Predict the structure of Amidase.
Amino acid sequence: MTETTAAEWPSLTDLRARLTGRELTADGLLSACLDRISDVDPLVRAVLALDPTARAQAAESDSRIAAGRARPLEGVPVLVKDNIDTAGLASTAGSRLLAGTPPSADADVVIRLRRAGAVVVGKTNLSEWGNFRSTGGVEGWSAVGGQTRNPHALDHSPGGSSSGSAVAVATGMVPLALGTETDGSIVVPAALNGVVGVKPALGLLPGRGIVPVSRVQDTAGVLAPSVVDAATCLAALTGGPAVRPIPARGLRIGLWHGRRMNDAVLTGVARVAERLRAAGVVVVPVELPWDAPPLIAGMDALLAEFRIGLDGYLAARGGPVTSLAELVEGNRKDAVELSLFGQDVLERAAEVTEEQLAGASAKRAQARWWARDAIAAVLADHALAGIVAPTSEPAWRLSPEGDPLTRNTSTIPAMAGMPNVTVPTGLLDHLPFGMSVFGPRDTFEALTLAAAVEAVCGDRRAPRLSEA
């Protein structure tokens, strides 16, 4: 049987057809992934742990395929972010305090992944605790996994917090990876590494077994080479519909430039707008509000939600730390944990008062309805199918002094709980540039719109795997 290399994957539809047609084997695909990881990961440090049961998973997939009982993702290799529980394997959220005591059960989304036939290859590195540890934190760094690097410029940031998942897909280690997002943690690293990232609508995928930042704003999502591949994965996990191509001509799409983006980003936005107009899209410049009170309310709610959620998760999991207070104290005793930056965000969350806990729900509702109304008003006022916006400024140079202030457009759709899809649209200088597509409340409607945008101005580039 003919095998394939993991450096350049066929589309997921083609890969599945070749697997079920027995042109490829699941074991061969796994070998290609492991070879690619061995070759590339020492440069980028995207993979935190490999699953020792992966060979057995692949063998089961090959048996099912031979018996004509293939499931939707049968034999497809997938990496999973390490804040998503996998029974007996890592699941550290990047913290040394959780290393050595893996959970006893899979997260619900991993259960769905396995039931769909995917082969879980291992776990990916991340910004520790979903980058909810310090205002001076470094994206893509964790005490367990070290610093993940951007494959397009190894001395630049991969973004976060789903850093390893984005880099693994960008470098062809796997055709699919799972990440998580509270605000920007899928779409920003996807954009910075030149892949598709899908943050689904809240509730589409289950949250049990995911280390929480906010139980009411977190969601798992997918990173993939293309919108259709990501949609195929989500359909397999949810029973949702396949994404059908729609013509771009005649679509009315709002163009938001974001807030105070740099000149390079504005140049990239103009390039995308030109391509859309040339394809017959009616591009309407729009603005989204940026009101301080609901944004502050959302952050206040996040601190309380983090404490409530993490206390519950740690207590249920057991191990050396069973509460946020114990985590803060444990970090103080670990020289590696605090070697690069502190934990002021964890400390603030640990000091949340009972009054703040009681008021979190009302503040979350204020923030959510403001964000939903903001998007809905723009769509209605201009009769738009959706909005496109620059996902983020391009990757920044890594520095021991921490990350600089960079701007992105993820906050409003994240606070609204609405789907957000980022599409790679080429390079700014030598760094990937992605555009976000959001507006529809249904994830598969948003994916359909994103696929139309991708067909017109999608431009994914192979990483150079060298420094800038």
